[in-house]
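Inputs:
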Amino acid sequence: MAKAPVLTPRAEDFPRWYQDVLNKAELADNGPVRGTMVIRPYGYAIWERMQAEVDARIKTAGAQNAYFPLFIPESYLQREAEHVEGFSPELAVVTHAGGKDLEEPVVVRPTSETVIGEFMAKWTQSYRDLPLLLNQWANVVRWELRPRVFLRTSEFLWQEGHTAHASEQDARAYAVRILHEVYEDFMRNVLAIPVVVGRKTARERFAGATNTMTCEAMTGDGKALQMGTSHELGQNFARAFGIEFLDESGVRQLAWTTSWGVSTRMVGGLIMCHGDDAGLQVPPMLAPVQVVVLAVRDEGGVVERCRRLAEDLRAAGVRVELDARTDTSLGRRATDWELKGVPVRLELGPRDLADDAVTLVRRISGTKESTPLGAVVEAVQMALVGQQGELLDRALRRREDATAQVATVEEVVEAARSGWAALPWSVLGPEGEAALAQQGISVRCLVGPDGGVPVTDDAADLVAVVARAY
Amino acid sequence: MAKAPVLTPRAEDFPRWYQDVLNKAELADNGPVRGTMVIRPYGYAIWERMQAEVDARIKTAGAQNAYFPLFIPESYLQREAEHVEGFSPELAVVTHAGGKDLEEPVVVRPTSETVIGEFMAKWTQSYRDLPLLLNQWANVVRWELRPRVFLRTSEFLWQEGHTAHASEQDARAYAVRILHEVYEDFMRNVLAIPVVVGRKTARERFAGATNTMTCEAMTGDGKALQMGTSHELGQNFARAFGIEFLDESGVRQLAWTTSWGVSTRMVGGLIMCHGDDAGLQVPPMLAPVQVVVLAVRDEGGVVERCRRLAEDLRAAGVRVELDARTDTSLGRRATDWELKGVPVRLELGPRDLADDAVTLVRRISGTKESTPLGAVVEAVQMALVGQQGELLDRALRRREDATAQVATVEEVVEAARSGWAALPWSVLGPEGEAALAQQGISVRCLVGPDGGVPVTDDAADLVAVVARAY
C-alpha cells in the first residue's frame, strides 16, 4: 500500500500545498486579526538568517541602520501626491490613544519615505552631509483584502533603505548597486533563486518613484513573485520634505533620494521556488539547520556518538541539530526533517556504529550513502556545497524551460498558463500591457537585450518579461 | 579663557545634560508624533550590540525567537482582568483600516501576553510540548503623557520572552534564570552597570503577574532606573487563554507561564549611569566603536599608516573606526569622539610617526600615553579590558557611596534627595510604602539579607531598596 502523502501534491492544488507546508513544517500561522501572521520559531529562524545575510551586504554598501517611528502624522503622507494616492486604500489609522481621541489621527507606517524625508531634511545642510545612507529593519502595515501568509499580509517585516544624494547619477548608481550587490547577490548565491532583474514599467512603479527596479522569481507553478525592489525617487520626496543642501559653490540644491526593500515575503518565495511534494528545500547557505544528526536507536552508545558527531560538525562551523528522540520512529522523524527542508541528514544506528559509518542523506538530490565516521565532516561540507549548486541549477533550468520566447500578445496568454513569456517591449507596449492586465497577466519587468537593467523604458530593443504573479 | 562646556554640566541640570548628550552624540531625536523617537545610527548601533549580547544569552537559555502580530483584538485584553486594567489607559487603538471602519477595533500591542497565550494554548497538548520557550524582538506602544527619549516613549523596541511550563517550580526557576543569566549577567558584565536584583512589592508588580523581579540601576543623579523585569504569571494567563496539557498520567492540567523583557530604555540607562560632563562613556564590551584611530594631519604617510593600524586592529577582532577628516581640527574631532564615549582613541601625527609611536587616550580614566606602534594592538586590548573594569568599579563605588542604610521612613526621605536608601521591609511595610509614594519615592525592590532575590515578600528579614526613579 502506498504511503498517504504528507502534503497535498503540488500538481493537484498548489495554493493548498503551500498552506500545508506552512502548517506541517511549522513555519507560520494566521494571526487573530485578519491578514496578520504568526511566524513560528522555524520560520523565524529562516527569516533571521535572511536578515543576517542581507544586513551584512547593506553594511558593506555603506548604509547605517537606524529606527524611525511606527506612527506617522496623516499630514505627512499628503505631501507627496502619488504616494498618498497609492497608499491610502491600505492604511491603518489610530484615532484613539491614551484614553482619548487624537486631534490628528496617525497612520501606522505602510513605508517610511515621508517620516525619514522629514529627518533627512533636518540632518542635511551641506554637500558634505551627502550621501546620507540609512536603513531600518521594521514592521509595516498595509491592509490586505486577499491575504496569504508571507506573500501578502496586513503586517509584514522588512528592511527599508532610504538614501539622499547630491546628484541624480549618484542616486541612480546607488539604487542599482543595492539591486545587484545586495538583493540579486543574496537571492542567487544564498537563496539559490535565479531572479530576473529588470526595470518596472510606468504602470508597475512604486507610488512616488521615478524608476522602480525589481528582482522577480519563478514559483513552482510557473508564476512570478516580486522578491525585492529598489527605487529612484528623483526629487519628489526631497521637494515634498525640503531635503536641501548647499553645494560646493554655496548654491542651495534639492537632493535626490532612493528607497529599497525586501521583506518576509522572501520566506514565501523560498517555499514556492524550492519546495517539492515532500516539503521545503532550504539551500545550505541559508539553512538555520544545515545538518541534522539522527540517533536511530538509544542502544550501544549511539546517542552519545551522535552528540559527539554534532559537536564535531559545530566545531567545523556547520549549523547542526541533534535529534535523539528515539521514542519516535526514524521514518516519522525523517519525514519531519524532509518537511523542514534540512539539506543533509545523518542517520546513525547500532549497525552503522558497528561499521564505523553513518548514513548521509541529501534532501535536494535525494541520494543516500554510507560514509566512514572518520570522514564525515568533510563529506558533509562537500554535500552542502553540492546541494547549494544543485538547487540553483535546478531552479535556473526550470526558469529557462518555463519561459517562452514569443512574438505576439496571443502567445503571451498561452504561455502564461504554465510559465513566463518574453517578448519585445516594442511589440507589447503600454496598450498591450493594459490588455494583458485584464486577464491577470502583468509585465514583471523590462530587461535590456544583454540581460542588463535598462536606464529608460523607451529604448528600442527592450524585452518584456511577462507572467501571472503572486 | 576657559572653554565653554559642550554639554550642560550634570550638576547644573541633569535632565538637560541628558537631552544634550542625546543631541550632541547624535543618539536620538523626538519623532513627529508626541512621545515617539527616532533612533539615529550611533544610538541604533549601541542598541544592535545590546540585542546581539542579550539574544545570545536568551538562546543559550533555550528560548527560540518567533514573531506575533502588532495588532491584537480588543477582546483578548479583556480576558485577564488585572492586565486590561493596567494597560487600558496606555492603549493606542486602530478603528479604521483598509478604507473603512473596523467591526472590532484592534489595539496596538502594549505587550504580547494575550496573543501569545492564545497560540501557546493551540500548540500545547501534552507535557511533552512543555516547556515552551519563546521570545520576540518587537516594537510595542504604550501612550506616554510625560515622554523622555529612551526612558519613556510611546513606542519602544524590546524583547519579550514568554514561556509555558508544566509546574510552578519550573516556571519560577526559568524566570529566575533569565533574571540572573540573561539580564543581570549582561548588565553587569557588558554594560558595566552593577544592578541591584530583587523582587517587586505587590504595589509595583506587572499587571497580571504573581511575582515581578527586577534589575535596578543607579543613575548619575542618584535616582533609580528599572532596567529589566522577569515575571511569574502563575496560571492567570493560562486560565484566561486555556493553555492546558495532559500530564504524564493523562490528567488535564493548566500550565504556568512567565514573561520577561528589556528594552531601548537600557540605552537611556547607559547614558544616565555612565555619562559625564564630556559625554557618553560606552563600556568596551558593548561599544560598537571600541577604538577610533585619528589621523592628526594628512602629511608624510600619516593617513596611510592610520589605515593600516585600523586594519591590524580589525584583524585582531577590535571594533575600530578610522577618522581621517584632517580638514577638521584634531581638538574638535577628539571632543566629538569623547561625546560619543568611544573607550580608546589613538592619535597619530607626523611627529608620532617619526617616533614610531602613537598616542593612546583612554576615555574613562582620562589617561594618555605614547605607545610604540609595534606594541599598539596589545596595548589597545589591555586598555579595553582595563576601561571595562574601571567603569564597573566606579559605578559600584558610586552605588555603595550613595546608598544609605537607614532605619526610619524619615531617614529614607532625606537619603532619597541624593541617592538610595536601604531599610528593613518590616519597618517600612505596605503602609510606609504608600506614604513614600505620596512624595514620589518608591520601593525599587526587596532583597534577601544575603542579597539574593526573595521567593516571597513576607519573609521577616527582607531589605527594601528605596529611591526616586525615572
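The first strand of chain A starts at residue 28 and ends at 30. Flag for discussion at group meeting.
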